[in-house]
Amino acid sequence: MENQSETPLLDRVRVPSDLRQLPESDLQDLADDLRQETISAVSITGGHLGAGLGVVELTVALHYIFDTPSDRLIWDVGHQSYPHKILTGRRDRIRTLRQPGGLSGFTKRSESEFDPFGAAHASTSVSAGLGMAVARDLSKKTNNVICVIGDGAMTAGMVYEAMNNAGSMDSRLIVILNDNDMSIAKPVGAMSAYLSRLISSPSYRNFRQTAKKIAHRLPASFERTAKRMEEYARGMATGGTLFEELGFYYIGPIDGHRLDHLLPVLRNVRDAKTPGPVLIHVVTEKGRGYHPAEQSEDKYHGVGRFDIITGAQNKGKAKAPSYTRVFADSLIAEAEQDSSIVAVTAAMPSGTGLDLFADRFPNRCFDVGIAEQHAVTFAGGLATEGYKPFVAIYSTFLQRAYDQVVHDIAIQGLPVRFAIDRAGLVGADGPTHAGSFDLNYLTCLPGFVVMAPSDEAELRHMVATAVAIDDRPSAIRYSRGEGVGVAMPDKGEALEIGKGRIVQEGTNIALLSLGTRLSECLLAAEQLAAKGYSVTVADARFAKPIDEDLVQKLAAEHDALITVEEGAEGGFGSHVLGLLSRTGALDAGLKIRTLTLPDRFIDHDAPFAMYAAAGLNAPQIAEVALALLDSNVTELPARA
Predict the structure, then answer these.
(1) Strands (E), 213-340
(2) How far apart, in Å, are the Cα atoms of 392 and each of 180, 292, 403, 453, 573?
(3) Which residues are catalytic?
(4) Average pLDDT over residues 177-191
């Protein structure tokens, strides 16, 4: 007897046009298949699970009602898009998610025509969608533009800038607020569904337009009062007064897991011809339909590979503590001794380790939401009053607050401490989350102290150093993942500002490392020693201020100098070149190379493979050294 498929309806759907051939009565069964396939895929690849499970029915409804890809469907952040990818011709590759050469964990324009806008950072969808809607109008087209944005992303100011702009225009734009955490509005039962169908219906909207025309013939004061009364009446019934004030026609809230609630509302909105933006408030549940995710505190937001039956994640045993954990433990230890230390994060308490700090010091830890700009200036205010704020933000997210870093912190010389997690290449999250540029955009700022630990013990000392720096801003940038397994000091000790260290002495060539490539430099030195070369390995510790004495000593006492860093060109190595140029050290013919990340975005892969692609692993470092010292020698022993 043939084995029957566990996902018979989903097997019939390759792209959304196939989905639209199904009767509505089959859609819930299709959603069940889609949920099962999503769970199965992520159990193999790892990734973001809870958010995707929460939008399964919504994903089915959107592709059923709207003519994608002609109608543009934009997913904010994109981490909830796995069900969308399955329905849009990528099911055969869904088990390559976040794997080398496989599908991205986020939406990506180059991956599919069904991804009109790439996103892995939050709160961009309404701005992008409005741009597409205006472009459509300018081109005299009639397609729909739909943005799906979560309530978490609604904590970012950019959304309100976009909504304020959209509300002042006549361009038709559909925004779906996926409320899966804050429960902005509680009533999602039969009455709410009825009201949503009513106020989205053509009859109501036609009546509303007629009433507007009548009111327009009356005195202006009466017209304004009538308009305000109608908006507030609907706002009181549905909870959408804020969105109405921003100029959106609000519908909801509706149950995002009830297709019989979703479909008629989406259809009404699709068929409406009235101008202006619409917001549909949909309430969903993260992790919906998978018991371990529903019961988990984080709803399986981000998971490794896991057992579908038990939900147990297959996490390898750590050989060393993660840099994130070392930062958290070190900051807690410092805060035990100094009551002026406070911590700030932008919606990433667990990702930055500040959840641990918050457990110990609940009144001294502040999660400001997805609002990096606010986080930085908020910390600046704390610093003016004598507190010692640590702002823990991923490198790639701190980019969103660069003006605040410059204008509100650097120019005023405020002692805000930036703890920059995810520096360098980060693996499965790919280029959208790689910390490639912080060295460039921080080391150019006057007065900044920028540190990069080579191992977890150095990170502990740098946290203590940042506490001690109380007259200017400072930053520590450190990698994702485990440390290198060195012995940890009981207590962090403040380092001398702007002073590096020589780890290994040699005579022929000097390798000057900034950050965690130090271990690869030491391996490269071993490979070079096997070829008969004597190598000095130094740890810069500080990208700014540079240890000028150390750099000039390395340049003067070696035939060649190589700098190595986990950042884009224009960072630490460029500052070293600038110093050597100013002091005339290059005039005598010093051979020098600066090894940085290449001038391209590196696709997701295992971190070791990404660094190999960047030319920053030991064999590549040694190859560059050999090319400098002896152009006839290029072969090196392969790394195991």
Answers:
(1) 249-255, 277-283, 302-303
(2) 25, 30, 17, 16, 25
(3) 286, 372, 400
(4) 56
CATH superfamily of 10-297+299-303: Thiamin diphosphate (ThDP)-binding fold, Pyr/PP domains (3.40.50.970)
CATH superfamily of 327-479: Thiamin diphosphate (ThDP)-binding fold, Pyr/PP domains (3.40.50.970)
Dihedral-angle region of residue 430 (phi above 0 means left; psi in -120 to 50 means alpha; beta otherwise): left
CA distance 615 to 612: 5
**HSE-up of residue 401 (Cα within 13 Å, Cβ side):** 30
Number of C-alpha atoms within 13 angstroms, CB side, residue 544?
Answer: 23
Give the integer Cα–Cα distance in Å for 476 and 189.
49
Q: Which fold has domain 501-629?
A: Rossmann fold (3.40.50)
Q: Which two tokens stand for residue 193?
A: 């569904």
Q: CA 113 to CA 109: how far, in whole Å?
A: 7
Domain extents in the chain: 10-297+299-303, 327-479, 501-629
Measuring CA to CA, how many Å separate 169 from each of 162, 166, 175, 276, 320?
A: 11, 5, 14, 6, 55
pLDDT at 192: 44
Asked whether this chain's domains 327-479 and 501-629 adopt the same fold, the reply is yes
Q: Which DSSP string do the residues of 414-472 spell out, in sequence order? A: --PEEEEEEEB--STTGGGG-B-SHHHHHHTSTT-EEE--SSHHHHHHHHHHHHH--SS
* Three-class secondary structure of residue 15 per DSSP: coil
Tell me the pLDDT tens digit for each residue of 595-632.
999 999 999 999 999 999 999 999 999 999 999 987 54
Using the structure block, give the residue that is written with the tokens 């994608």.
68
Question: pTM for this one?
Answer: 0.86
Q: What is the pLDDT of residues 553-606, one digit of tens each?
A: 999 999 999 999 999 999 999 999 999 999 999 988 889 999 999 999 999 999
pLDDT digits (tens, 9 = 90+) for 301-323: 888 888 888 888 887 777 889 99
DSSP state of 587: G
Indicate if the alpha-carbon torsion angle 20, 22, 23, 25 is positive or negative. negative
What the block records as the tokens of 448 is 């900044």
